[in-house]
Amino acid sequence: DRVKGDNLVKLRQELVFDKYIHPKELPADAKTVGIPKSFLVNTYYPLYYNFFTQLGFRVVLGSEPDIEGIERKQAAFCYPVELAHGFFNDIIKKKTDFIFIPHILETFNEDETFKDRTCVLLQSEIYYLKSTFKDQLEHTKILSPILNFATGYESSKDEFISIAKDLDVSKPEASASFDFAVGELQEMLREFTQIGKLTLEELETDPDNFAVVLFGRSYNSFAGEANLGIPQKFTSRNMTIIPHDFLPSAYEQSMRHMYWGTGNQLMKAANYVKKHPQLFGTFITNFSCGPDSFLISYFRNVMGSKPSLTLELDSHSADAGINTRIEAALDIIKSYRELSRDEWDDHQSNGFKPLEIVGDTTIKDSSGEELTIFDKRVKMLVPNMGRFGTEASAAAFRFVGINAEPLPIYTFETLKSGRGTTTCKECLPAILNAGSMLEYYYQNRPPEERTLFFMAESNGPCRLGQYHVMLEDIIRKKELTNIGVFTLTDENSYSGLGDELVMRWWAAITISDVVQDMHHAIKALAVNPQDAFDILEEEWQIILDLIENGKLDDIYKKLWILASRLKNIDRHKKIEDAVKVALIGEIFVRNDEFSRVDLIEQLAEKQIVCKVAPVGEYVYYSNYLAKRDGAGDGYSLKTKLKFLIRDKIQVNIEKKIKEALSYSGFVQFEITEAEDLMKNAEHLIRPELDGEAILTVGSALYEIMDHVSGIISIGPFGCMPSRVAESILNSEMNLEGKLKASKIKHHNFDDSIDALPFLAIETDGNLFPQIIQSKIEIFTLQATRLHAKLNVSRRKDREDAKNKFVTLIYKFYQNKIKSPYKPDVSGVPGIAGEVE
User: Fold this and answer.
1) Can you give the pLDDT at residue 4?
2) Strand 356-357 with 279-286, pairing
3) DSSP code of 691?
4) Is the previous residue joined to 207 through a cis bond, with omega within 30 degrees of 0?
């Protein structure tokens, strides 16, 4: 009995939270499991509810977004994450015995040609909530299994049985409960599609009628707490509103390289709506939604000239403005239908053909001619990610015969160019890369050149993997001839480069990482910095030539020469005695001179040395991902052995480079250990959350106090991993958090040390506003004070260790102990090596 004006969004929520949950008579003292009404609970609630209820637990839904919880958030999160904090606090107040929040890696997709990862903020929900509310969780057990529904909901059975085991429930009972719960979820999803089909059949009986399909995520478009009553605003105007997941669109086309599960669902539904003359889309998104910053553009491209409405919401959105936009959208749709009932004016191509990558090393230009990437008519552009690293990477490409050119440091003109061709909601690195590609194409590119724009690629969950898709769309939209995007993926540790290039590139970026830190130290410590810069620049040009044309041994010799020349530079203090801070966070902006504005210079003016987290850190992390994901049958024994050997070679190259350059006295010898960094964060973030969040958290807790006196985490505006890391570190950057991460039980630190200097900065390419400038000033003061306190603690540690050692030696001779004795100084930070 579907009628015009139906609110199928409301019906959907009734199916999720009413029809397909089955209460059970339980004893009054039955233990309770709290489930916050956040994220995919708005779809998977029947699975969770029925599983725990069948096991004999009373399920309590955290359905009120408690304002006190929202106000406790530790970063500028999007609206759904704000609500997640509120729902979580609601559950805490209800004092349940357990709280269930799974880490969901992937959702299910009937069409297995697509990946289905969830967004970073959804995956990491349990991690930032546990840190934020840790003071209220002492007596509550958190149930947070890692679930992957990629191959079907049944595939997670073992994880649910494991939960039941933790709850002292037998395996047969758990298995039966899970089977029942999965059956109810699947039946509900089938009813979604059935209702959608019936609604469309009814709609199609009246060609003069049309309906609105509501796009978005189940937790922002369909949830009453988040959608600000938008479905009702349509139905009150006699419009039928249909959730996009009610459409029979499972086998429609998605967007190329779409690795987000919800993104696939949205793009498939968009293609279905585009082809149906009586359906029109309304897309609900939220400010700072990472995936939607790309998906909105894709959605609009699919719709073409067909009218659609996009509503961007947060907790401050005005009701009147939404009403006005809905009224306008409906008027435009009605006019469109009157004018073009039989004229579907899709954009027709005028014959333009973009340059294509047709093999590992083969391209086809816009005229159809095939060339290899080693042809001198082909130029590889290396986009800037820090001057030294970009120039060294281009030299490494030239080493194997690729005509590579480093692009210059970005400017405000680059930013303007990028903003002019994007929505400006994408992250800063994407915008700058778009701007630099267009600048080169229109200003510097020879007409006969075939140009490749080099771009790293990933399969999510971060937005990096969408950069090349966006750039390819720009090339098509602007019909840029003979330019294409050349990608390599971090999923296989960039093995597409070939072993020869990988090793040369590794040496190049390792050198550039260290030279960059030397450059920063010279700014802060040299009495006459320009003298040192002149030496560095002269030797750097020779090093670049050797990266391109020389042998590794020749490069090492030149590094020793550079270090020897810099060693004689007068300096205000030794680097060992200087105040040092670590600049961590998103890999692009922490290395890019334009993105980090004048941050390094502000620190150098106060003689504070800035250590930038190396690019090599992420390369080692990519090695880790490749080894982890290929641990089973993913890689052959030969491939696994190859990774192992390459790992050893990389470490050996790094040691030689850093041994040479540390002789300059402007850097200290430290080897990058990505897995060691992750160990410092594994109690806060599980390594199954791929991406930079765990590296940022681990690096901060690893570096502080042991190597630096302050941590700055920088990320692009709206960067998902950066905000996750910021939220966790705002709770954990204190002495207790440091000791727990380092697994130190006893310490001898100054009693006044508690909060550790930490500053999170977001950059959008503009100058830092006054509030950020003030925070930098405060941070530098805090870092300087901690440095002084740590010096006192270290002196006391040394005295205590020496006294302890002398006492042990005295006892050794007094008692005439003949066997060797090694004193136990494991609980004395920084002393074990000295005593030994």
Assistant:
1) 62
2) unpaired
3) S
4) no
**Within 245-310, where are the H helices?**
261-275, 292-303
pLDDT at position 816: 54
Nearest to 195 by CA among 147, 155, 248, 157: 248
Q: Which residues of 605-659 form beta strands (DSSP E)?
A: 608-612
Classified as helix, coil or strand, 202 is helix
What is d(CA 646, CA 380) in angstroms, rounded to the nearest whole number? 25
Cβ neighbours of residue 192 under 8 Å, at least 6 residues apart?
Answer: 12, 15, 243, 245, 246
Torsion of CA 586, 118, 265, 52, to 10 degrees: -160
Strand partners, 752: none
Distance CA 76, CA 762 (A): 10
- What pLDDT is recorded for position 452? 97
Kindly report the length of the chain.
836
Half-sphere exposure for 716 (CA within 13 Å, toward CB): 25
- Give the Cα separation of 222 and 561 in Å (integer): 65
pLDDT score recorded for residue 349: 53
Q: Which one-letter amino acid corresponds to residue 719?
A: C
From residue 30, alpha-carbon distances to 21, 34, 57, 438 in Å are 18, 13, 6, 64
Is the separation of the CB atoms in 82 and 287 below 8 Å?
Answer: no
Q: Is 256 helix (H, G, I), strand (E, B) or coil?
A: coil
Is the Cβ–Cβ distance between 23 and 53 less than 8 Å? yes
The token pair that represents 458 in the structure block: 């990933």
Task: Give the chain's end-to-end CA distance (angstroms, integer).
Answer: 83
pLDDT exceeds 70 at position 523 = yes
Residue 22: phi, psi to the nearest 5? -125, 95
- pLDDT value, residue 796: 67
Cβ atoms of residues 373 and 362 within 8 Å: yes
Q: Which of 330-344, 458-472, 655-669 comes out lowest in average pLDDT?
A: 330-344
- The tens digit of pLDDT for each residue in 199-247 reads 999 999 999 999 999 999 999 999 999 999 999 999 999 999 999 999 9
Give the start-end residues of each E strand in 748-814: 758-763
pTM above 0.85, yes or no: yes
pLDDT tier, 835 (very low <50, low <70, confident <90, very high otherwise): very low
Cis peptide before 461 (omega within 30 of 0): yes
676: tokens are 């060691």
